[in-house]
Amino acid sequence: MAGYGDDFLYRLLRDDEFPLTDGIMAKRPSRDKEPSYHIRQCSSEYKACHWISTCATMEGLKKMKELKRRKLKDDEGDNDTCLKYVVIDRSELETYAEKCEEAYNDPLFEVFQDQIVRTVPFREKTGRILDFTYSNVMDEYLPKKDQSDKKYQIQRNYAAKYEEVLVERFIPPHCCIKVIHGENSCDNPFYLNDGTGEKELFLFHEWNAKCQTEISSVTSLMRDTHIGE
Fold first, then answer.
1. Contact residues for 175 (Cβ-Cβ < 8 A; gap 6+)
2. Cα–Cα distances in Å, from 192 out to 84, 175, 176?
3. Which of 7, 38, 153, 212 has the greatest number of CB atoms lying within 10 Å of its CB?
4. Distance CA 27, CA 44 (A)
5. 228 within 8 A of 222, measured Cβ to Cβ
């Protein structure tokens, strides 16, 4: 089996993820767990680790959306939630990961207009990118000695079905092209990162969504603690 992804990766987003402004952080970026620990096991907080799940193709993402919808229906009786996903520039991410690898034990600086802005913390250093659509990656991290070896069979089936690509620790915002909403978004996606202002528009919408979330949280806190009465 050869890898068959394209120039992008796709991630189904949680409600608290704002990739265009914050990037995507693993739930527990300082942990050190094998990929087999994460695949198909890491949706709960107590099992969270330093891997981020993405899909290599739109087909894998469609299947992931269906899995999420079934889970929402089972947990909440609701399968009509409008799920959103982010399109990630794979080449940009791989380039950033190479820079992080070169500076693994040394400071890595964010630079803007030839001026050092800040030192990048370890949790924001992208590590390995493991594409399980490649047979050599599948066999290295989810080995199968022979046909009777079932140790990693569930993980292998899951990784193959959803065309899993694991990213270690962090996906920076400059690698995230756009967030796509909508019921039919998986059927007819489009990508635009050509300086026409498309990403800036989505940045505004994401910033606005974050503000609304924070305002809602503060309003709820004030109501619960009777502030202002």
1. 23, 88, 89, 92, 93, 96
2. 17, 13, 11
3. 38
4. 10
5. yes
- Which whole-number Å values give the CA distances from 152 to 42, 56, 60, 62, 119, in the listed order? 15, 21, 20, 24, 39
| Residue partners of 157: CB distance under 8 A and separation at least 6 | none
DSSP 29-98: TT----HHHHTTTTTSGGG--SEEEEESSHHHHHHHHHHHHHHHHHHHS-------EEEEEHHHHHHHHH
> What is the value of pTM for the model shown?
0.75
The domain spans of the chain are: 8-191, 192-229
Q: What is the third-level CATH fold of 8-191?
A: Heat-Labile Enterotoxin; Chain A (3.90.210)
Sign of CA dihedral 99, 92, 175, 1: negative
User: What is the CB-side half-sphere exposure of residue 8 using CA atoms within 13 A?
Assistant: 20
pLDDT in tens, 151-197: 889 999 999 999 999 999 999 999 999 998 865 555 444 434 433 44
Question: Helix count (H) and strand count (E) of the chain?
Answer: 7, 10
CB atoms within 10 A of CB 196: 9
The first and second tokens of residue 14, run together, are 């949680």
